[in-house]
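Per-record layout

source: Linum tenue
name: Calcium-binding protein 39-like
length: 252
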Amino acid sequence: MQARKDLVHCWSILLKHKVESTHSCVEYIENHLELLDFLVVSYDSKEIALNCGQMLRECIKFPTLAKYILESACFELFFKFVELPNFDVASDAFSTFKDLLSKHDTIVAEYLTAHYAEFFDLYDKLLTSPNYVTRRQSVKLLSEFLFEPPNSSIMKRFILEVHYLKVMMTLLKDSSKTIQIYAFHIFKVFVANPNKPQEVKMILARNHEKLVELLIDLTVGKGSEDEQFEEEKEMIIKEIVRLSRVPNLLNS
């Protein structure tokens, strides 16, 4: 056990070490990318999963290594690892997954643009997981990386999709208040979008009574955050009510 911890510590030091202006160990890994593949698949080995996870997160700090993992076949394995039955391993895998989607904005934006459908098909399963922790972590992460400026085109595409509107509406009804709040921050963009597709307008109009009821009951803590939340909520409720009064939307 101690030997593994020492190895992780040495790995971290070596990655940071420079020879003149070059991270020589990073360069070595760039030429031996199978090392990254090994670290990823090690989440399937409970004995070394946490150590390898730490080593992976050290690697992800470097753009070239993060880019490789995102674009590799191994990346898809994270959607399985974050739901492993061992809580510690699953949590560690989610930490690595989060780093991959948040450490390098431009690389992530390029990846999501090129692999939008495949990524969100897999991510959808996390948002609708029967596991509370998975749902909470996934909707929180989504509410963070969608709002990153480099992902604005991804956000614009996402909020045109009726399926994800329905997913957010379902999460607004979750038994967890925390999940409801994170879902609201994404749901509000669907509603506030000035270029809503007709089908989105129809769904909001048809469900206006239940949505307004849910939103009225939704609150956060005290203070300025609560004031801003209430202002946003009021604006969203007004827009939903307005849509419910548009001729033909309810009966389309």
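summary: The first helix runs from residue 2 to 16. The mean pLDDT is 91.
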